[in-house]
Amino acid sequence: EAGVAQSPRYKIIEKRQSVAFWCNPISGHATLYWYQQILGQGPKLLIQFQNNGVVDDSQLPKDRFSAERLKGVDSTLKIQPAKLEDSAVYLCASSQHRTSGLNNEQFFGPGTRLTVL
Amino acid sequence: KQEVTQIPAALSVPEGENLVLNCSFTDSAIYNLQWFRQDPGKGLTSLLLIQSSQREQTSGRLNASLDKSSGRSTLYIAASQPGDSATYLCAVGSGTYKYIFGTGTRLKVLA
User: Fold this and answer.
1) Rounded-to-10 torsion of CA A31, B63, B92, A91
2) Phi and psi of B84, rounded to 5°?
3) Gyration radius of chain B over CA positions
């Protein structure tokens, strides 16, 4: 079974530029998560999708961050314009479903390391 | 609001020791708890998932326990090896089926 795929693995941009990250979850997984992990901290949830609908985006800085999951499969996360404090690893995870909480084991991709200069 | 704390923040032990990592959470209304391992520059690897109705889960040299009433989980690693060196994270599933992570324990096992 293929795991969660993410690209690119690394990205370096200057502040005020825009950047986009892509995630392909495990086949058949209905729930998709985007996390931000700043060095030395645990991952922080940015947005959670159930199929192609948003379940939780309460911690997404909506003035600069946007995310979509068209057709309920792949997802993209965009930052425009980037700030220095956006430097972090952006992790994508997927799980089978959310309705019962059971079998909701999360599987993570390798992450995208973003450096904003 | 759920808060997750992991103690200690860092741990260094000689090879062969048995060790315990701790995870505590403030809201006992959880539906599961997951332990992860993260190697430097890598994503998270799932180690163990404990459902809220379970008390413990075991996989090889790893054993995770859950005590919801006291808001605690422990990850026990038996006979530690240098290859176990990594950061260990716990994540609590609660609220609107989202996960709150602790800040992790950085483990170094010395050969």
Assistant:
1) -50
2) -80, -10
3) 13
- Examine the pLDDT at A97 and tell me if it is beyond 80: no
Residue A105 contacts residue A36 (beta carbons within 8 Å): no
State how far the Cα of A117 lies from the Cα of A6, in Å rounded to an integer: 22
Q: Does residue B97 belong to the interface with chain A, where contact is any CB pair within 8 Å?
A: yes
Q: Is B71 on the interface with A (CB under 8 A)?
A: no
Give Cα separations from A63 to A67, A78, A82, A103, B68 (angstroms): 12, 11, 11, 34, 38
Distance from CA of A89 to the nearest CA of B (A): 9
Confidence of residue A101 (pLDDT cuts 50, 70, 90): low
Residues A42, A57: Cα–Cα separation, whole Å: 18
Residue the block writes with tokens 């979850």: A25
pLDDT over 70 (residue B55): yes
Find the residue in B nearest to A32 (Cα). Answer: B98
More reliable by pLDDT, B75 or A40:
B75
